[in-house]
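Quick one: structure tokens for this chain, please?
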Amino acid sequence: MGFRYGSRHIIFQRSFSMRQVLVLALLAFILSAPAYAGERDADHEALRGILKTSSEALSSADFDKLKPVLSSKNLTVVTVDNQRFKSLDEFKAYWDKMFNGPTSLLKGLKVEPTAEAQTEFLSDNVGIVDGTSKETYTFRDGDVRDMTTRWTAVVDKEDGNWKIAQIHFSANVLDNPVLSAAQKAAGGNIMLPGLVGFALGSLLLGFLGRKKTA
């Protein structure tokens, strides 16, 4: 009986100790949850700051202002016409060709991005978000066309600051009013495969989505 009593006593002690560990772990989780939520609120606020900066930079074609919100290590931009850019300089050259080139047909671009959900954080330093964007293209001949695009963006925290790391977007190639307008403006002689690439603007503005959503 003494052996049984001792065994039961040891088992009881171990069981009690395990319950203590579980209770302490639960308390630690509960106490840390508000702090973690607060950190995420700060992250979303930082992403909203990137939205503002990106919007101002693209509206004025100020790529120097855009540079600080783009990743300097892992930037990848994939446009709907299957072009891939690995730096801001490459994208700027693409932008200049479409808006300022000798044969450019575009005069202006306005974007209205919307995230379909909050940024999903895959880790402390990486997040992903997707959504749609309404873009308004103004042509040099005065024509104005709207187009809706779909986008996905990855954000990465570098040295404590959130950056746009990867951007991929798409448009409906079978029903594309912007491409149709470009063909019209060019006399129907060119397809301008890179034109819809300017949906990138929506990604830079919208990877974090609406202010209430991001």
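The chain is about 45% helix and 25% strand.
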